[in-house]
Every structure is written in C-alpha cells, then in structure tokens.
Design a protein that fits this description.
seven-stranded mixed β-sheet, four-stranded antiparallel β-sheet, 24% strand
C-alpha cells in the first residue's frame, strides 16, 4: 500500500492550508489518476490524521503517534481539552470506536511509503522562484510547561516593593527565551501560550503557566538551548521572588526523511529542491517506521499558523499533479 494525506485540524486562529491542502491534494491526485483511467498495481490510501497540531489535547501528532504505538490509549484517553471534554468522549462524539483506539502494527507494516503534501511554512520556494520542494529533514523540537508561582494580592493596596508577581517574572522569562535563541543562529525559541491564574484585571496573579517551544537542527542543540534558557529563566523568576517548576510535555528528535524515496520524488517533480523545515508533521512520526517523504507547495507570504498563510491556485494544481505522478510511480509496480 502507498499512503498519502495530511491533517484537517488547525491551531487557534490558524490559516486554511496547513493540513487541509495535503488531504485535498491527495483526493485530487487520486481523482486525476482515475480520470487517466490508470489502475494501480497496489492500493493507495488517503489519510487524515487526527490532532496533528495538538491544539485541543496538547499532544502534537496524536493520531500518527497512536497508530505507531508511541503513545498508549491509556495515557491519552483521559487528556482533556479547554472545555474539560476528554479525548475518549471526543472520540465517542465523533462516532468512533474507543476500543479500536491505539496501535495498528499490521496496517503500518502494509504501508510501503507515505507521502505528505503540505503548504510551505516559510519563504524558501518564493525566494527560489519554484512551486514545489521535497523535505530533507524536520528540526528537533520540544515543548515544556513552565509553572511560575508567586503571591496573589490586591492590585491597589499592595505596595510595588516586595511584590512576588509571576506575570512580571514570565515577561522577563519570555525575553530570556528570545535572547538565548538569538545566540544560536539556526535555533528557535518561543513562548506562544500563557495562562494566568486567576486572570483578574485588579489582581496580582498567584500563578502563571507558560509553554516553551524550542527547535534546532540537532537533538543536542535543543537540549543545550533548553539548559541555557532555563538557567536564565530561573534567575528571572528568583529575582521576582517566585518559584519555577518545569515539565517536559513532548520531545521530537531530528527527523531525516528517507533519502532514496525523497530523491525519487524530487526527480519526478523535475528536480525539486530539498529543504529542511522547523515544523513537526505526521510524516516525521511515521518516518521512524517506514519510508516517508514530504512535498512542499510554495507559500507567497511565508506565513503559517495565522490567517495570512496561503498558496496560489496554480501552485496547488502543480502540487496535486506532482503528487499524482509520484503515486503513479510508487503504486505502479506490485509490492515485492
Ligand atoms: Zn501541518
């Protein structure tokens, strides 16, 4: 079996292309092949992986990780979303069988190759003047939850001196994250999510939870950046009289895509360039178990995870035609 597809979920306030373009292009590629009257020598599967962004239940690539057995149903079914709905309940609401949640080694073993088409999340192709690329690698990345506790009190009656304000500590921590990342040319460090308790206008907060996202070219670069970042954050938190606890929520090692498959796809796509990406993908998870590759479609704004994310219609068409040619090649010969 040759599998293709991507995901349909998005991030809060996300764009229209990250994920859905890969699923729509997979369906379009199959339609193109059908219209050509072509019959594959082995089955082609179209996939839409659940919860790729981890926006709802906090675990990126949840669907592909469950399929591969990297996470167990027992560990994730109790995870809840912002409204307190558990993954298990959401699963039922989608009319899916909870008993079937979990690894499927037989299905995974039947997949000879997985190709994920995705909108590019940068300006590389726009700068090169080319519509399509293949992915060479996915940068290593991790997510950590920082909990900063201080002392809640009245915003009007509490003197400025002696306050233990976790929001002030978090502001300094966010600057520290940026400053450390600036010192590592290929690295990224971001605080994009903050939860303030109790979140009142006239209240000094008692606690802040902030999520730290770090990415770099190697696993050890990420660890080294984390270490220097946390050392600096610890100082910021202590200076404000607050306390810091750190919990690792996920760590995704560097992914190098299958070289033979990627080279073959690049040739079919008329010598498309190979570019690395800083974003995680289901293809990255699956690459540990089977040959996986990605096709990127040019994004003229370079914006992703925001409404400005886009792709020109003619480039999307090139992508679907390219994917169809790739499927025709990969599924054109019977499994050996
Ligand atoms: Zn995506």
């Amino acid at each position: 079996m040759i599998a293709t597809g991507s995901h349909l979920d998005s991030v809060p306030g996300g764009g229209a292309y990250d994920g859905p373009l890969g699923v729509a292009s997979a369906l379009e590629a199959v339609a193109i092949l059908k219209a050509q009257g072509w019959v594959p020598a082995r089955p082609i599967a179209v996939c839409a992986f659940a919860e790729e962004e981890g926006s709802r239940f906090g675990m990126p690539c949840l669907g592909s990780r469950l399929l591969a057995g990297e996470i167990t149903p027992a560990a994730v079914r109790v995870r809840t979303d912002g409204d307190g709905i558990s993954l298990e309940d959401a699963w039922r609401q989608a009319e899916m069988d909870v008993a079937r949640m979990g690894p499927d080694p037989d299905r995974l073993a039947a997949v000879a190759a997985f190709v994920e088409l995705h909108v590019e999340q940068g300006l590389d192709l726009e700068e090169r003047g080319q519509p399509l690329a293949v992915a060479s690698a996915i940068m290593a990345h991790g997510r950590w939850r920082l909990t900063i506790c201080g002392e809640g009190n009245h915003a009007g009656t509490t003197p400025m001196m002696g306050r233990r304000d976790p929001v002030v500590a978090t502001a300094a921590a966010a600057l520290a994250v940026r400053d450390v990342a600036l010192g590592h040319p290929s690295a990224r460090g971001t605080v994009g999510r903050i939860s303030v308790t109790p979140n009142g206008t006239n209240v000094i907060a008692s606690r802040v939870d902030a999520w730290l996202d770090i990415r770099a070219h190697t696993d050890s670069d990420v660890r080294a950046q984390l270490e220097s970042t946390l050392a600096l954050i610890q100082k910021c938190v202590e200076a404000e009289g607050c306390a810091l606890t750190v919990q690792e929520e996920s760590f995704s090692p560097l992914v190098s895509f299958d070289v033979a498959l990627t080279t073959r796809i690049a040739e079919i796509l008329d010598g498309a360039p190979a570019i690395p990406t800083g974003a995680g993908h289901d293809a990255g998870v699956l690459s540990a178990y089977l040959p996986a590759a990605m096709i990127f479609v040019r994004n003229p704004t370079g914006v992703s995870h925001a409404p400005g994310e886009t792709a020109r219609d003619e480039d999307c068409e090139q992508g679907a035609l390219g994917l169809a040619a790739v499927l025709r090649d990969l599924a054109g010969t019977p499994a050996s």
